[in-house]
From TrEMBL:
UniProt-recorded Gene Ontology molecular function terms: ammonium channel activity
Function according to Swiss-Prot or TrEMBL: Involved in the uptake of ammonium/ammonia (NH(4)(+)/NH(3)).
Protein name: Ammonium transporter
Source superkingdom: Bacteria
Primary location class: membrane
UniProt keyword list: Ammonia transport, Cell membrane, Membrane, Transmembrane, Transmembrane helix, Transport
Membrane topology term: Multi-pass membrane protein
Stored InterPro entries: Ammonium/urea_transptr, Ammonium_transpt, Ammonium_transpt_CS, NH4_transpt_AmtB-like_dom
Domain Ammonium transporter AmtB-like: 16-433
Length: 451
């Protein structure tokens, strides 16, 4: 049997693009930190940012040790990779002492570059969950939950969705078996509608329910404290998302170009659709709505960007913009405190994008699959529904188990006094804005005192 991973010389153009794409995806996590941080109250902004930034630390260590191996190692049932195969990234690092020696490849790029690219997906998926539980989860408990959730939920699901079978030089013999959703079910999820957004969205819902509502919610106003932060975060997310979607081509080719365009079109359409929905429903269009519409469009086009044309991208963007704008109100109807609308944007947006592949996919797009509206019947639609449903169910049950384990061991939630005083002070002994010092300095300055 041929060696896996395959050894060879990488394509320098593809490698350069994928290094840049990985860096773009990493930038999305600080972008998310600003997006979420601006949406919370002033007394919780540092903690909100820290939950995203801390994911960069926790998930990187786990990914390098065994996460990549669980997600992309060999398996026998399409369910989980061998955690020992690439433990500590053995066999993937280095070039046998020579810059010209053959190295482990994934397609045309070094395996190490692919490791880094996929790491960034793992980081932001965990960070996404934090928006559902703002202001009330212990920081240490968040770190523990993040490690457990990545290990038992994200890494296996990434294997199902992102790990494709690899054939040998004869083009027929399978030398590496990938995950069941990508290879047996053949559901299309180009860049993570199921593995990232549905997965994190339902996890946020379950964790928010188990954690309970914020003190005073929904009666006490909990408005965003810094909308410029939110807009900055949305801009960084849109910028970084080109690495997310176009980078998932794993090559500097026409697929990357096509997904770049459909990502842009769907995102623009979703923003406008959200603003129009707000205008009709509330009488005004808001900056928060624009930022949320951008993210909803990005989420929805993520699974479908390789399988639709511009018309399909417009349809997905408009649908996501309208449905996600309406869905964010579900938490008030059903009484779950999803602080920053992770469910309404990521779960609903992920479902929209994943399921609409079965309707508006066209053979003129790179994936080459026809949906119902383009003569393909229901074949792709049922595959999309099964893939989305499987990830949703697995994540919901698994998250509930892990959250309850943390709750009844080290505890999940801050006590009431700490929550009331502010999570920044109680968990980090810091505050984002030192109003007292600013005010004092200003008064002294006006009266000739020392600054």
């Amino acid at each position: 049997m041929e060696q896996f991973p395959i050894l060879g010389a990488p394509d320098t153009g593809d490698t350069a693009w994928m290094l840049a794409a990985a860096a773009l995806v990493l930038l999305m996590t600080p972008g998310l930190a600003f997006f979420y941080g601006g949406m919370v109250r002033a007394k919780g902004v540092l903690n909100m940012i820290m939950m995203s930034i801390s994911a960069m630390g926790v998930i990187t260590v786990l990914w390098a040790l065994y996460g990549y191996s669980v997600a992309f190692g060999d398996n026998t049932a399409g369910v989980i990779g061998d955690p020992g195969q690439f433990f500590g990234l053995k066999g993937l690092i280095g070039a046998n002492g020579s810059a010209d020696a053959p190295i482990a490849l994934v397609g045309t790029i070094p395996a190490t570059v692919f490791v880094g690219f996929q790491l960034m997906f793992a980081i932001i998926t965990v960070a996404l969950i934090s928006g559902a539980v703002a202001d009330r989860i212990k920081f240490g408990s968040w770190l523990l939950f993040a490690a457990l959730w990545a290990t038992f939920i994200y890494f296996p699901v990434a294997h199902w969705v992102f790990d494709f079978d690899v054939t040998g030089s004869d083009g027929e013999t399978v030398i590496h078996q990938g995950g069941w959703i990508a290879n047996q079910l053949k559901a299309i999820d180009f860049a993570g509608g199921t593995a990232v957004h549905i997965n994190a969205g339902v996890a946020g819902l379950v964790l928010a329910i188990i954690l309970g509502k914020r003190l005073g919610w929904p009666g006490t106003p909990m408005r965003p404290h810094n909308l410029p932060f939110v807009m900055l975060g949305a801009g960084l997310l849109w910028f970084g998302w080109y690495g997310f979607n176009a980078g998932s081509a794993v090559s500097a080719n026409g697929v990357a170009g096509s997904t770049f365009v459909t990502t842009t079109v769907a995102t623009a359409a979703a923003m406008l659709a959200w603003l129009l929905t707000e205008r009709i429903r509330d009488g005004h269009a808001t900056s928060l709505g624009a930022a949320s519409g951008i993210v909803a469009g990005l989420v929805a086009i993520t699974p479908s960007c390789s399988s639709v044309n511009v018309v399909g991208a417009l349809a997905i963007g408009v649908t996501a913009g309208v449905l996600c704008a309406l869905a964010v109100g579900l938490k008030f109807k059903f009484g779950f405190d999803d602080s920053l609308d992770v469910v309404g944007v990521h779960l609903v947006g992920g479902l929209v994008g994943t399921l609409l592949v079965g309707l508006v996919a066209t053979t003129e797009a790179p994936a080459g699959v026809a949906g119902l509206f383009y003569g393909g019947g229901f074949d792709q639609l049922w595959r999309q529904a099964v893939g989305a449903g499987a990830v949703l169910l697995y994540s919901a049950v698994g998250t509930a188990i892990l959250a309850l384990i943390v709750k009844y061991t080290v505890g999940l939630r801050l006590d009431k006094e700490e929550e009331a005083s502010g999570i920044d002070e109680s968990e980090h002994a810091e505050s984002a804005y030192d109003f007292v010092a600013v005010g004092t300095g200003s008064v002294l300055g006006r009266h000739g005192g020392e600054e």
